[in-house]
Each structure stands twice: as C-alpha cells, then as structure tokens.
Specification:
Length: 191
C-alpha cells in the first residue's frame, strides 16, 4: 500500500470485530512507532501493549469514546488491543508531545496497512490506567491507540470547523473535514 493510500483511508474507528490481533502484528506496529522522529533523538517513548482479553475489558472502563455522539461500543465491538504510549521523564525529553503524536500516527498508518482500524485515545482515566498497568513513577502515560479489525464504515465529507462527526441510522460515522482551499495559505496569510 502506498503511503498516500494509507493517509486517505486511515480514519478513527470506534466499532471493531470480536477478533483477536496476532501479537506479531502488534509488535510490528510498535516498531513503526519506535522509528518515528524524536527531538534531539532523545527517544523518550516506551510502550505497553495490552492484548489479554480480561485486561482489555478492564482498560475499556477507563476510556471515553465518540464524545460528539451519544454512543459507546458494546462489549463485542470494543478494541481487541491497546498500545499505550509512555514518556520516560528520566531521559529529559525535549519534544515529548510531538514525539508521542508522531509515534501514534505511525501506529495508525501501519494499522491501515495490516487491515486494522485504530482510534487515538486521549480521554483516559490516566491514574487508574497507570495503576492497573503498574507504570513506574518516572514514566507518564500520554496517549493510547485502540486497535481492532474494523466493523463500521467511516466516510469523509466536506465540512466546517463547527461540525462534529456524526453517526447516521445505519451506523456509518460521517467525519467532516475542512476543504483544502479554506486552510492553505501560500507565501503568507493574504497571498
């Protein structure tokens, strides 16, 4: 798959098939994250993969889904794995927030290439998850990526910044995106 295809087809998936993800696929996705750029090459990121069904179910209770619509995935529709992205504060990271975003992006693009869907999660009960996973005090949980085989259609359409995504009667997520001509400025703001 070409990178341009992965970028255009990668969407936040919120409904997944009840199907396990092979561990080697999860390891490969984290390897893509490991290879993402890092400010001053400090490489402050570490990762916790959760793929045990009982732990995955507990984790779900500490996450929030689809905040713009009144909907949550049911027990058989939830992610079948999570990748938690941690920042090791002991290495004195210089661009940790950017590093996390780049790593999460690589995971999501790699997921598309393997037939998986992904959803970046920042609405987390951080302390509860850190306790459940035994995260050491010098590491900070930053983001999570929920993963699974998609079980929903997500479509892009032109929109405005005021339009949230929405779910139609058939269960299709509609994701408005601002048109390129409204956000690109060449050689300054007014040119």
């Amino acid at each position: 798959m070409k990178v341009s295809e992965a970028i255009r087809s990668r969407r936040s998936v919120r409904k997944f098939q009840d199907r396990r993800i092979p561990r080697d696929v999860l390891e490969e996705l984290v390897d893509y994250a490991r290879l993402a750029p890092s400010g001053m090459n400090k490489q402050p990121l570490e990762f916790v993969i959760v793929d045990k069904p009982d732990l995955e179910r507990k984790i779900f209770d500490y996450t929030s889904w689809a905040g713009a619509v009144d909907w949550n995935p049911g027990p058989e529709e939830r992610p079948r794995a999570y990748v938690f992205i941690l920042v090791n504060e002991g290495v004195k990271p210089v661009t940790a927030d950017y590093d996390v975003g780049l790593a999460a992006g690589n995971i999501c693009l790699g997921a598309v290439d393997t037939g998986l869907g992904s959803c970046i999660l920042g609405a987390l009960e951080y302390e509860s998850i850190e306790t459940l996973l035994g995260i050491p005090g010098d590491h900070r949980l930053d983001l999570a990526v929920g993963l699974g085989y998609p079980d929903q259609e997500v479509v892009l359409e032109d929109g405005t910044p005021e339009i949230d995504y929405w779910l139609d009667k058939e269960g299709v997520f509609h994701v408005p995106k601002r048109p390129s001509e409204n956000i690109i400025h060449f050689n300054g703001w007014d040119d």
